[in-house]
Amino acid sequence: MPKEYRKIIEIDEELCNGCGQCVPSCAEGALAIVDGKARVVRDSFCDGLGACLGECPTGALRIVEREADAFDEEAAMAHVATQGGSLAHAATRDGADPAPGHGPAGGCPGAAAMTLRPAGSCPGAAAARLRPAVPAPAADGDDAPPSLLGHWPVQIRLVPPDAPFLRGAELVVAADCAAVAHPDFHRRFVGGNVVLLGCPKFDGDADYPRRFAELFARSGVRGVTVVRMEVPCCAGLPAMVRQGLAASGRTDLPLREVVVGRDGTILAQAPAFGPGRLERASA
Q: 152 vs 24, 132, 157, 163, 196, CA distance in Å?
């Protein structure tokens, strides 16, 4: 296994109380409770992104940079499969029960694909859909607009290429920063569309072109809009989408690009390569 200098999880044994809350939060199954302490099962299973950090009540986990085996996603997923879809229990090597409130989970419990029911959707179309709880009023008494998000998850790295909500959808692939910078992002790009978020700079090891190729080949999406920031490092996102599109063989997909300035305004739009609802809506 080749080694490289990279980010990886480190566990402070003195701070770790063995609660196991970090275990189900690792989609790659890199963590286990061994002899009452959390351990990294294998360096090559840890992607170094730190999804587990927020689950530790004692602050025993942190990300460090050191020489380690390269992250092997295929081996990690094969490892998860051997756990029978229950990392919270199977990754507990000493047989201890997982912490209360952290039951069995097939990888990351927050990554399960689901279709939501956005506000204003037809009640008759709610079969087999998750209906979100009524949101609590804002603390300052303001009336917040309802969410228009119709699916979960939203991160490019987490969405399965054959997720049911992708079938026949208008796809918006957006840079993380664009969703924060553009003040009308939710209304303009989220409602009625499937939105995937990511960062071409910090997700460099995610192999976006391959993921997009699988998604375009298997999902049946109808069109793609890439929303990126004006900064140079963000220009890689539409390039990766185009690479995935070319590899998928889908020559029928309309593709367009929207560039958001750091002040939140839309600066430019790439030429559209075919008709699409988003093309008309945001023109």
A: 18, 12, 12, 10, 9
The answer to the question of residue 190 being in a domain is: yes
Whether the per-residue pLDDT at 212 is higher than 90: the answer is yes
Task: Please give the share of the chain, as a percent, with pLDDT higher than 70.
Answer: 72
Each residue's pLDDT tens digit, 106-140: 344 445 555 655 554 443 333 223 333 344 455 55
How far from 205 is each of 7, 66, 73, 173, 278, CA to CA, in Å?
Answer: 12, 17, 10, 17, 30
> What residues form DSSP beta bridges with 228?
259
Q: Cα separation of 214 and 30, whole Å? A: 25
Q: 199 Cβ partners below 8 Å, 6+ apart?
A: 175, 176, 177
Structural domain including 43 reads 3-90
Two tokens, residue 138: 């804002």
Phi and psi torsions of 118, nearest 5°: -65, 160
Half-sphere exposure of 209 (CA within 13 A, CB side): 8
DSSP 8-state class, residue 47: -
Q: Classify residue 107: in a domain, yes or no.
A: no
Does 220 share its domain with 162? yes
Whether 126 is covered by a domain: the verdict is: yes
Q: With 90 as the cut, is the pLDDT of residue 277 above it?
A: no
